Amino acid sequence: MSDLSTLPTAISCLEQGDVILYPTEAVYGLGCDPDNQQAVEKLLAIKQRPVEKGLILIADNYGQLLKYVDDAKLPMDKRADIFSSWPGAITWVMPAAKNTPKWLTGQFDTIAVRVTNHPSVKRLCQQLGKPLVSTSANLTGQPTVTSIDQAKQQFEDKVGCYIDEPLGGNTQPSTIKDAMTGKVFRG
């Protein structure tokens, strides 16, 4: 476990398959490299979350998400709603690309994705060159941790790096919407 204020340390943790704790728009998140199955499995074990539920990917820009999203299936009439909401705290459930791993999509043929406006996460994704897995920093069914000290008490050395930077100021986790229908899953 390391305290860090430097981006290179966080990137090193991610590249080594570690799980990191970092600030998002409203809550602290647990994240890892979405292409590293062992890292994702480690994150799910820490969170005590079943793989079937699927995960969110958070990115610096939509281009980073194209590997995971079946962009051709996004209806033209829905694109304005999606892209005008980004960057921001709106997560869209989109058709998953054929090769998107089940450790990310779970039991679904969709994937939840967000383009963030949080500066810390943007820097992480820019340096890593890809999105991060993003899930709230809590054990499944428990309240989300609201401080780095609380996170360290709960996760101890299970998390490779703690990024002690401010949250984005939102009071609620991201809204989650279906990109195909506009239905709100979490408001």
Automatic annotation (TrEMBL):
Catalysed reaction(s) here are:
L-threonine + hydrogencarbonate + ATP = L-threonylcarbamoyladenylate + diphosphate + H2O
The answer to whether UniProt assigns keyword Secreted to this entry is no
Recorded GO molecular functions are:
ATP binding; double-stranded RNA binding; L-threonylcarbamoyladenylate synthase; tRNA binding
* Enzyme Commission number(s) of this protein: 2.7.7.87
Where is the signal peptide, in residue numbers? Answer: none
Say what the protein does: Required for the formation of a threonylcarbamoyl group on adenosine at position 37 (t(6)A37) in tRNAs that read codons beginning with adenine. Catalyzes the conversion of L-threonine, HCO(3)(-)/CO(2) and ATP to give threonylcarbamoyl-AMP (TC-AMP) as the acyladenylate intermediate, with the release of diphosphate.
Q: Which family does it belong to?
A: Belongs to the SUA5 family. TsaC subfamily.
Q: What protein am I looking at?
A: Threonylcarbamoyl-AMP synthase
Q: Which organism is it from?
A: Pseudoalteromonas espejiana
